[in-house]
Write a structure and sequence with these properties.
By secondary structure, the protein is α/β, with parallel strands linked by helices. The chain has helices at residues 4-7, 15-26, 45-56, 69-83, 98-109, 125-132, 152-156, 181-193, 221-225, 251-264, 270-282, 284-308, 330-333, 338-350, 374-389, and strands at residues 32-33, 92-95, 115-120, 136-141, 163-169, 197-201, 227-232, 245-248, 312-314, 321-325, 352-353, 355-356, 365-369. Residues 30-384 form the Aminotransferase class I/classII large domain.
């Protein structure tokens, strides 16, 4: 009864941990949960009020399949003022979250058998979305010493005549690494000259700490024409449940994305879109407050691991994740599924929930989310220290 395409989708390797955490909480156990990939802030008040106003003003009818025109204008304003990139509203498609924007773009450009370069570690949904679109995910290993940021040298041996697209995530989930302008220019010029479309997932762009974020499409006219930007409101404005994202790309691809979306979901919620307009235009102070809070937490975590000295992390320059290297514990844990063993064990013994790196295709690491209170973070770090020192 099940389609071959559905059978080809891999279940999340982290479901075991997630299900265990839920069961333990339901049974009344107190868990320090540092797994969540969503901000621990509420949606800014002005955006919430805009959503309420949209309801009372009866803005609840169908709109354009590519999204509300005023929202797309606001997105264009944002891209020009913050990223120095000029787009017109017909190049923007508003979607039901950034994940939906990625799926739309994949369906718009991938033909059956096309290969898509995905540097690992990576967000778990990329390979599955590629497979749903009929493509072949090609997972490219990267180097810890380069904070797992892909280089031309990493990618070259995986390029074939079937390579159609590459997915870049900047800032990165799960590592928190951020590309510099020079690093981006090197790889993006390479892919553009090869005629390989760049999908640049920039959902965490508002959360960068050490230098200014650089959008791929701002690098050159040639790269701009070859790039599909993915972004949204879940991370920057803490609007995860509102389900609002967008893509920005050349007019030809944008038209195809809008056509695909018109048949699959039509457009995002009209209420969410009104909140999104205000989030872009009137909530910059809220976004900055969140960023500064994340930075304080990042700095505390970095100092903790530096002073402790037993385990290392990839230095996080963005997003809200710390990627912890647990490879020194291999002999003590004695498992061919290191990160799963670690996460299950520390959950049982210390009541601390982390995400196994195997879910991101890097089994020597686990991910800690610091989208949590400082009290929870401190508690979680002490539990890691206690667990490791008692192995």
């Amino acid at each position: 009864m099940i389609s071959e395409k559905a059978k080809n989708i891999s279940p999340s390797i982290t479901l075991e941990i997630g299900g265990k955490v839920k069961t333990m909480i339901a049974n009344g156990e107190k868990i320090t949960n540092l797994t969540l990939g969503e901000p621990d802030f509420f949606t800014p008040s002005k955006a919430k009020l805009a959503g309420i106003k949209a309801i009372t003003d009866n803005l609840t009818k169908y709109d354009l399949s590519s999204g509300n025109l005023e929202l797309r204008k606001a997105i264009c304003e944002k891209l020009e003022s913050e990223n120095n990139i000029k787009y017109t509203p017909d190049q923007i498609v508003a979607s039901n979250g950034a994940k939906h924007a990625i799926t739309n773009a994949a369906f718009a450009v991938i033909n059956p058998g096309d290969e898509v370069i995905i540097p690992v570690p990576c967000w778990v949904s990329y390979p599955e979305i590629v497979k749903l679109a009929g493509g072949v995910p090609v997972l490219v290993p990267t180097k810890k010493e380069n904070s797992f940021k892909m280089t031309v040298e990493d990618a070259q041996k995986y390029i074939t005549e079937k390579t159609k697209m590459v997915i870049l995530t900047n800032p990165n989930n799960p590592t928190g690494a951020v590309f510099t302008k020079d690093e981006l220019l090197s790889i993006c010029e390479y892919f553009t000259k090869k005629g390989i479309i760049i999908m640049s997932d920039e959902i965490y762009e508002s959360i960068t700490f050490d230098f200014d974020f650089v959008s791929v499409a701002s690098l050159s006219k040639e790269i701009y024409d070859n790039t599909i930007i993915i972004n949204g409101f879940s991370k920057c404005a803490s609007m995860t449940g509102w389900r609002l994202g967008y893509s920005a790309c050349n007019t030809e691809i944008a038209k195809s994305i809008a056509s695909i979306q018109s048949h699959m979901t039509a457009h995002p919620s009209t209420i969410s879109q009104q909140a999104g307009i205000v989030a872009l235009r009137e909530c910059k102070d809220d976004v900055l407050t969140m960023k500064n809070t994340y930075k304080q937490r990042r700095d505390y975590i970095v100092d903790f691991f530096k002073n402790w000295g037993k385990l290392e992390i990839i230095y996080p320059q963005g997003a809200f994740y710390a990627f912890i290297d647990i490879s020194p514990l291999k002999d003590k844990l004695n498992s061919d599924k290191l990160s799963l063993k670690f996460c299950n064990d520390i959950l049982d013994k210390e009541k601390l929930a982390l995400v196994p790196g195997a879910g991101f295709f890097e089994d020597d690491f686990v991910r800690l989310s610091y989208a949590a209170s400082m009290e929870e973070i401190k508690d979680g770090l002490e539990k890691i220290k206690h667990y490791v020192e008692n192995l």
